[in-house]
Amino acid sequence: MNLSLYLKERQALVEEALCASIGDGRVPAKLAEAMAYSLNAGGKRLRPILVIAGAEAVGGNAAQVLPAAVALEMIHTFSLIHDDLPAMDDDSLRRGKPTNHVVYGEAHAILAGDGLLAEAFAVFADAAHFPDVDPAILVRVIHDVAQATGPRGMTGGQVIDMEATGTAQTEATLERLHAHKTGRLITVSVITGARLAGATHNQCAALTRYGDDIGLAFQIADDILDIEGNQEELGKDIGSDAAQGKSTYPTVIGMAASKKRARALVEKAIDALSTFEDSADPLRALARYVVDRKK
Amino acid sequence: MNLSLYLKERQALVEEALCASIGDGRVPAKLAEAMAYSLNAGGKRLRPILVIAGAEAVGGNAAQVLPAAVALEMIHTFSLIHDDLPAMDDDSLRRGKPTNHVVYGEAHAILAGDGLLAEAFAVFADAAHFPDVDPAILVRVIHDVAQATGPRGMTGGQVIDMEATGTAQTEATLERLHAHKTGRLITVSVITGARLAGATHNQCAALTRYGDDIGLAFQIADDILDIEGNQEELGKDIGSDAAQGKSTYPTVIGMAASKKRARALVEKAIDALSTFEDSADPLRALARYVVDRKK
């Protein structure tokens, strides 16, 4: 399949839906602007595309799950805004643009993040968004997304990350950190799309294995890009992990072993899809993309 | 009815449920500690008690809605932690105790707030918590809570508050500020309890009017207490609104008119309950309590 055409089409759908998602006039203007600034700052849109590809894998389509794709990107964006704050990673550049607090100030950046997080659940729980979905399934989806986002997931991962910074980690502790900080939201993106499109229990189990594997592969690729990437393409500083005293796969197991591990995870992720037909080809192509990407 | 006995019994139920709500070992220790610190820092527990009283008003009971009561207090606590941050109101004392960021640092305080917000939705969407509730009702409840919390509700209210600080407000703009910042979460607390216990459309409409009126009365009482209250009982500095350049009801319409307006709102709230029998007596007593309280 032609992945770059696939990505281009899905990204266009997602961008359009993201643009339409904030400003309905009932949000205070400066808050809406701060939320939209980071939401519309580009990026790969990996999580929303995984929502769509997860739905397609089980016979669904993008239109069915587009609000969920938007909600997942809102949650991802919330985490980026808060991670960049002076009290956290203190980053002033993200995707080549000044970070939210640099433009809107710390208070508005904190609230823009809070607003995106709460709004994501309002989007999920808007019955008009998923007219054909059994509400019991929708409740399950919301539960899984909330857990992947909260203290047992991404928010917990940020704490693990802060506490690990400055201390040499083992591969096992690094894997735990990444599973929390990025892995769970990636897995739940695939599962959300699949569940909303009617996935069976067995399909969800296979897609969870797929998500966990590409989630970790994605993070190892990130670690590699932080050393070998092109600053202009990445839109952020190279070597920032090392400068911040963060352990990464290349520093813990070496560059060659990291590349080998990422490739092995991709193969394992694709193996997890063995019971799926062509409908899972986008997921297969995306698995290779997460390690082959240049940004 | 004996309100102080009622409050004591319901507060005990809520405190016990709050204590049990965080530490299941899957949350990183310091994050769990920071979340629990603010969640267990006492307070009136007004929102969870309104959830319970809302359920009771339509023939339900506390046990049916206790997880929702916990979730609403998590959301309220998230907002307090973030409001107190140096970049926001920069408060070092809350309920007589050092604020979250004073104890755990800014980064952990931001994440403790984020964690409580996400966890609240995980609690709501845990199907085991509401076995007898139609999932479609649960989705509606989650939607309303998310909207009352997010950019169209409390988070938006905090932005309106920041922008209003230092500028003289009219009564109308003050009312809009308070409706967003505190009113919507108070109303949604009553409605959440009622809906989960099977409220009809007409009951929800009456309880919404009740909630909107006591929400505003509560905030006017807060403004009055900030001037006339006892620092020791309040657990925070007196006159902090004026010191921060915030418009309040007493500064905008005068102290006597503020007290009159609060009392009138309480009577209006109680009138809204005219179609309810004795089961709404706790709500009636709570309406008087929100303006008669000393803290």
3D architecture notes:
Two copies of one chain form a homodimer. Chain A is mostly helical and 295 residues long. Chain A has one domain: Farnesyl Diphosphate Synthase, CATH 1.10.600.10. Chain A contains 15 helices and two strands. A two-stranded antiparallel sheet of chain A has the order 1-2. In chain A, a hairpin with a 2-residue loop joins strand 1 and strand 2. The two termini of chain A are 21 Å apart. The interface between A and B is large, with 55 and 55 residues.
Key descriptive features of the protein:
globular; Farnesyl Diphosphate Synthase; homodimer; two-stranded antiparallel sheet; 295 residues; mainly alpha
Numbering strands along the chain, what is their spatial order in the largest sheet of chain A?
1-2
Count of β-strands of chain A: 2
* CATH fold-level name of chain A: Farnesyl Diphosphate Synthase
Q: Provide the residue-averaged pLDDT of chain A.
A: 94
Q: Biggest protein-protein interface?
A: A-B, 55 and 55 residues
How many structural domains can be distinguished in the coordinates of chain A?
A: 1
Straight-line distance between termini of chain A: 21 Å
Q: What CATH architecture of chain A would you give?
A: Orthogonal Bundle
Radius of gyration of chain A: 18 Å
The oligomerization state is homodimer
N-to-C order of helices and strands of chain A: HHHHEEHHHHHHHHHHH
Kindly name the structural category of chain A. mainly alpha
CATH class annotation of chain A: Mainly Alpha
Q: Tally the helices of chain A: what do you get?
A: 15
Shape of chain A, please?
globular
Helix content of chain A: over 70%
